[in-house]
Amino acid sequence: MTCVMTWAISSIAFAQQPSQKTGDDLPQMAPEVAPPQTAGAPVEIDGRPILLIYSSVAGISPEERAANIEKRILGIARRNAVAVESIRAEDHGAWTEITVGSDALMGITESDAKAAGRPRAQIGAEYAEIIRRTVTTYRQEHTWRALLRGIVSSLIATAAFVLILLALFRIRRAIRRRLETWIPGTEDGYSPKSFRSRLARYLVLPLLGTGVIIVMVAVLALLELYATFVLRSFPSTRYVSMQMSRWTISESSGLASAIWNYLPNLVVVAVIVMAARYLIRLNKFIFAEIQEGKLTLHGFYPDWGTPTAKLVRLLIIAATAVVMFPYLPGSNSPAFRGISVFLGVLLSLGSTSAVSHGVAGTILTYMRSFSVGDFVKIGDTIGEVVERNLLVTRIRTQKHEIVTIPNGTVLGGMVMNFSAEARKNGVIFYTTVSIGYSAPWKKVHELLIAAALSTEDVLETPRPFVLQSNLDDFYVSYELNAFTTHPENMQHIYSDLHQSVQDKFNEARIEINSPHYTSLRDGNRIAIPDDYVPTTYEEPAFGICEVKESEGFQGKKRARVSSKVPPSNS
Q: Would you tell me which of 31, 220, 479, 511 could form a disulfide with 469, CB atoms 3.0–4.6 Å apart?
């Protein structure tokens, strides 16, 4: 039967509309048709193709012919009164016709025989045998007993499927509860570096996360088996079940074959990953030795160890990915290449600023402008550096605000590091006080230095000093400079220092002010310290002019009378 069906599928069938075999119908079958140009339309019984129709006759397409032939065969199969032996092939000279009793099923012309590559009589005999066997099989399978047997089998399979699913979910929940109870015990009762703790942390916990995937795969496998069994229990869907089974077996065997063929590449990938892993460990060891000062390289600072180790590790990972890429499954597929190109374009267009900040972060690392924990001023922001990574630098201000600055901005701006010199001899902080010329500058120096030494976190050595930064019109600007090793407390140091300056000057009866004069110089006391005033110096008298007005022949006249009035202290 298999041989006959193979020949039948590879041949060309000819069919017409249901009709009685009369003289009026025969001329419609006479015209020759050209060899088929399409794949053909199958004639299916219970979903199984038994014949292929390629050519069209009298304007009827192959699909319509196949549908008509299928209806005729099913009509004969359902009429048990029609004997199977009555299906036969008859030669009519120009064509061969397959009939059942007085009804015509289909016809075969010379063009059909040429397309099949066999004699027309042989093709007619084969087609007739295929139809007889199809009708016999259909009548044997489509009985009430077969239908009842399929329903009972389906009900049993459904009950078994539900019970297996319930058991599977219950087993999963029980295993999960046991593992969730066991994992905390391993963490509490064993060392974190013990085998059982690492097994729970690195093996069992990931299994808990992937347990849902495993269960879903099992459910899909059970569903496929259940559907295949139920479809196989009914004749109308038995062929669909066979197709599902064949597809599953084909895909599974293809997957197993692909895995088997990939094993050599998998070995290469494993070797590359192991080599990269040991290179990363060697890189970490070498730069850790440099970081701790156990290994010294000329011109390479110890604080460069950690960032350089990260850069080298990134290069090792990138090189590993490039070397390993050709051995990955699907690396040569168009989809994989399209995704690679898309990601490359996306990164090149969307990460320009990120790349610039990353390059700036790398440059800042080797410039050694500041480190984490330093007290710095970047732009207008003053505070302690709490984090520095490849892209940004974070500063905690004296008001406990976290300010994030992109490394590109840091590299392009000014960085003032207060902690660099504070670790050595101390960093200088300064403040300016303006005092009138009447106060002796030596006394002012003495008071300012005393105020600085009485301030907390100010160093006695090096000693504070005072600079007379400016000689203005009415006062002198004194700049007090002091040293400290705690620049992070500068806000409090400035406040305490200003309080001490006020106290010292108040105790010495010297006003902290910036006098401004609006006066005539002939009546003011000279504005220099008393130590420089001669003993014979007399304060000049202030001249007052009295103006008298009188009326005369020529109008108003003024008379000026002068008198000397000693100036008052005010």
A: 479
Q: Mean pLDDT throughout 401-411? A: 90
Range list of H helices, 10-61? none
Greatest Cα-to-Cα distance within the chain, rounded to the nearest angstrom: 167
Report whether 88 contacts 128 (CB < 8 A): yes
Instruction: Tell me how far apart the alpha carbons of residues 295 and 286 are, in angstroms, rounded to a whole number.
Output: 8
Give the separation between CA 514 and CA 433, rounded to whole angstroms: 9
Distance between first and last Cα of the chain:
137
**Residue in 327, 332, 324 with CA at minimum distance from that of residue 265:** 327
Confidence of residue 25 (pLDDT cuts 50, 70, 90): very low
Contact assessment for residue 312 and residue 261, using Cβ atoms and an 8 Å cutoff: no
Average pLDDT, whole number, for the chain?
78
3-state SS, residue 524: coil
Tokens of 41: 């339309």
Q: Which one-letter DSSP state was computed for residue 68?
A: H
Query: Using an 8 Å Cβ cutoff, are 448 and 433 in contact?
Result: yes
How confident is the model over 435-475, as pLDDT tens digits?
A: 999 899 999 999 999 999 999 999 998 999 999 999 998 89
Q: What does the chain come to in residues?
A: 570
Q: Say how far apart CA 302 and CA 292 lie, in whole Å.
A: 7
| Distance from chain centroid for Cα 228 | 41
Phi, psi dihedrals of residue 30, rounded to the nearest 5°: -75, -35
Confirm if 444 and 467 have CB atoms less than 8 A apart: no
DSSP lists the bridge partners of residue 543 as: 564
Nearest to 66 by CA among 14, 19, 127: 14
pLDDT at 206: 67
